[in-house]
Amino acid sequence: MDYAKYNAGARALHWITAVIIVANLAGGLLKESLSDVVPIMPVHKATGVTVLALSLIRLGWRLTWRAPAYPATMGRLERGLAHSVHGLLYLLMIAMPLSGWIMSSGGKYPISWFGLFEWPKLPVPRGSVLQEFGAQFHETAGWLMLALVLGHVAAALRHHFILKDGVLRRML
Ligand code: HEM
Ligand code: HEM
């Protein structure tokens, strides 16, 4: 069977950001145990702001084309659920790094992009309500994002191995 695919740019951006986001979710949640072995946070921040930049590019690019049609076997409810999860994932791909950036802007360490240049800080005073909001949001939304990613992956695997309807192959 022939499957309409997502375009090459969309596929590349999907997989690059997916790998970094999974690493950042894991790194963030395991930071205490990992920090005894390697200083994880400088890398977490550099990869995180990279996700912000890539996601803005991805979202802008996404508005210029239509996704390939779903198989006719997919009902309205399933399509609606898929669209809602994708929408929330897009939102969190922006909001997670943004809240991290806000929180870290009020911190004492510089935000370095892999030692190559310094990422600018937002005007967030140390100990301010805004910094605290960034930190709270980053933590809560991190759990929400983890749950959505797990659901998203489970759905992709269900399409591939149970329904065998080619939905996963559109993104490969
Ligand atoms: C895709 C992007 C990102 C994801 C998925 C992500 C995920 C997480 C998660 C799950 C945690 C653990 C929960 C917590 O302690 O708050 C965390 C912690 C943290 N993140 Fe991120 N993060 C991202 C981007 C960023 C960025 C861009 C920055 C800063 C520039 C940042 C700075 C931090 C800091 C400083 C902590 C430790 C907070 C603490 O110990 O209280 N993160 N991140
Ligand atoms: C952090 C990890 C991930 C994030 C944030 C993410 C995000 C997204 C988003 C936002 C879309 C919608 C694309 C669009 O229409 O513009 C999408 C589509 C898709 N993703 Fe992911 N994804 C992640 C990981 C994965 C993984 C690990 C798999 C496979 C096991 C996967 C499989 C797919 C498939 C098959 C589609 C197309 C689904 C459809 O058209 O309904 N994704 N992903």
Automatic annotation (TrEMBL):
Belongs to the cytochrome b561 family. It is a multi-pass membrane protein. It comes from the Bacteria. The chain crosses the membrane at residues 12-30, 42-61, 81-103, 141-161. Its main location: membrane. Residues 6-172 form the Cytochrome b561 bacterial/Ni-hydrogenase domain. This is Cytochrome b561. It is found in: Cell membrane. Gene3D superfamilies: Transmembrane di-heme cytochromes, Chain C (1.20.950.20). Its cofactor is heme b. InterPro entries: Cyt_b561_bac/Ni-Hgenase, Cytochrome_b561_oxidase, Di-haem_cyt_TM. Keywords: Cell membrane, Electron transport, Heme, Iron, Membrane, Metal-binding, Transmembrane, Transmembrane helix, Transport. Coiled coil: none annotated.
